[in-house]
């Protein structure tokens, strides 16, 4: 079986959850199931300068992982009009002749690229994983209004308030284009029931979606920290440092705990690439005002276990509807209970009072109170650790995907 993976970036350039899982899945299918193919990651000049003569570049030593340089992407319409770049992709696709094309994101890739590959590989089965809400939300797929409120589902009037400079025609055409492009896929996967519900609530047919959880590599859990005084007061943040992931909420909550005289420690791990100067100024000011907090910067997958060893709790204070953040599975793999915003796919994955704690969204005082409870409630940490279930492994996720690919190919021959 030959499989083409398409993603909006490569984890060596941008280590987001989608990029990490997609590349891990590709390698697991290759190494354990003999699947051949190509992992093609779309990038722009923001990520990598274009090399002369080709839009396809090597990403490292691997010959089956490449970068596709496309720099004219329209983020509103998810459109890629770079016809020259797309034309040079044709010989690569024709030589690969994929049986399955699995699209993990449309950012940078664009609807036109998918249409081109469909023409170049007419016998391939097409799979799309909706790792977030870009197909239904033009506001960066966040389902957040421009003034930061949770959006329970896109409507024409609601979207016009977020995009006053766009006419209703643009919004309707975007919706029709997304339904047309994704309507031609053989399967649409989502990693959580919550995500499926958001698409269905937006008017998409329920039967088009199947829940397919992501998975994480099976690694030995990091040892729990020895707490001589019995206090479980060390909190870790793992992920992109940006406004949506809630790092500001955590720093403000830590500030309030310090002001109240409650000893604790917060460590933030994650890159801050491509963030605005305004956000970084706000982040640095919040960090300076939280004496118990430290920012350590980006980390690698190999470093994660050692970083987990230093914390008792993993905090995910996102201010948007997370779909199925990989960091929850990573925390559970290392047997760390999770404190998360009680909304979206994160709240689906973390059972309040069983393997973690829910906190009110976008509420530093509420988050601080949950962190206080985590520190001061005797026996709570141990009970939550005992309630953690092993997350879906990468091996199991690969088997499920392979079964789906085979079923799709079998349907094609009927």
Structural overview:
By secondary structure, the protein is of the alpha/beta class. It folds into 2 domains: 2-215 and 393-413, Rossmann fold (3-Layer(aba) Sandwich), CATH 3.40.50; 234-386, Glycogen Phosphorylase B (Rossmann fold, 3-Layer(aba) Sandwich), CATH 3.40.50.2000. Helix content is 38%, strand content 16%. It has 14 helices and 14 strands. It has helices spanning 17-33, 83-96, 110-120, 156-162, 168-183, 193-201, 247-259, 277-288, 304-308, 326-333, 344-349, 364-376, 380-386, 394-413; strands at residues 2-7, 36-43, 56-58, 65-69, 100-103, 125-129, 187-190, 209-211, 234-238, 265-269, 293-297, 313-316, 338-341, 356-359. Strands 3-4-2-1-5-6-7-8 form an 8-stranded mixed beta sheet. Helix 1 packs across helix 14 and helix 7 packs parallel to helix 8. The mean pLDDT is 94.
Write a concise keyword list for the protein shown above.
globular, Rossmann fold, 2 domains, 414 residues, 8-stranded mixed beta sheet
Tell how many strands the DSSP assignment holds.
Answer: 14
Strand content: 15-25%
The spatial strand order of the largest sheet comes to 3-4-2-1-5-6-7-8
Share in helix:
25-40%
Name of the CATH class of the largest domain: Alpha Beta
Q: Domains counted in the coordinates: how many?
A: 2
Arithmetic mean of pLDDT: 94
CATH architecture of the largest domain: 3-Layer(aba) Sandwich
The number of helical elements comes to 14
The name of the CATH topology of the largest domain is Rossmann fold
Using only CA atoms, what is the Rg?
A: 22 Å
What's the order of the H and E elements? EHEEEHEHEHHEHEEHEHEHEHEHEHHH
SS class: alpha/beta
| Assigned CATH superfamily of the largest domain | Glycogen Phosphorylase B
- Gross morphology is globular
- Terminal CA distance reads 18 Å
Sheet with the most strands, sense and barrel status: 8 strands, mixed
- Contiguous uncertain segments of 5+ residues: none
